[in-house]
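Narrative of accomplishments. A recurring question from our advisory board has been how the design workflow behaves on a single, concrete structure rather than in aggregate. To address it, we present the structure tokens for one chain from the evaluation set, followed by the sequence designed for it. No filtering or post-editing was applied between the two.
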């Protein structure tokens, strides 16, 4: 992973959000889209809000992770048109199993930059999670997805 920095000296051009208070649970391992945790975004072309942009995403949720050996995790990633934002690694831990298996709040922040381009590109933001193989149950509730857009 490479450290980097960037800055913007103005407020956001647009802020998008989606949320859901309903509980969603899974007992299946592997990457899964969080139902409803998706925001349609585009860059480039004349019908998009801008030719390029920086997107800053905040995802916050109450989580529950349980397993028989308390050694299970729930990984999280947010994709923008199939691309992973930063910071990212092979270990996207969002929440870990606890002996009490109670709901707890967690937040993840990510950032991605799309350089100006003439061709329109779909960069829809989609939250996905992956429970580990030994999952008992993984769940989310009361989640909020917020995307801040800074046009280039």
């Amino acid at each position: 992973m490479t450290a980097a920095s960037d800055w913007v000296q103005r407020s956001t051009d647009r802020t998008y959000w989606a949320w859901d208070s309903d509980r969603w649970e899974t007992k299946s391992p592997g990457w899964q889209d969080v139902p409803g945790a998706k925001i349609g975004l585009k860059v480039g072309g004349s019908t998009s809000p801008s030719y390029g942009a920086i997107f800053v995403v905040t995802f916050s949720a109450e989580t529950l992770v349980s397993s028989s050996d308390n050694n299970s995790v729930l990984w999280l990633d947010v994709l923008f048109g199939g691309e992973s934002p930063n910071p990212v690694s092979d270990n996207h831990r969002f929440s870990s199993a606890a002996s009490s298996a109670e709901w707890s709040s967690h937040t993840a922040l990510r950032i991605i930059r799309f350089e100006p381009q003439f061709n329109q590109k779909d960069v829809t933001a989609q939250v996905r999670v992956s429970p580990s193989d030994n999952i008992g149950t993984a769940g989310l509730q009361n989640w909020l997805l917020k995307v801040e857009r800074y046009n280039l």
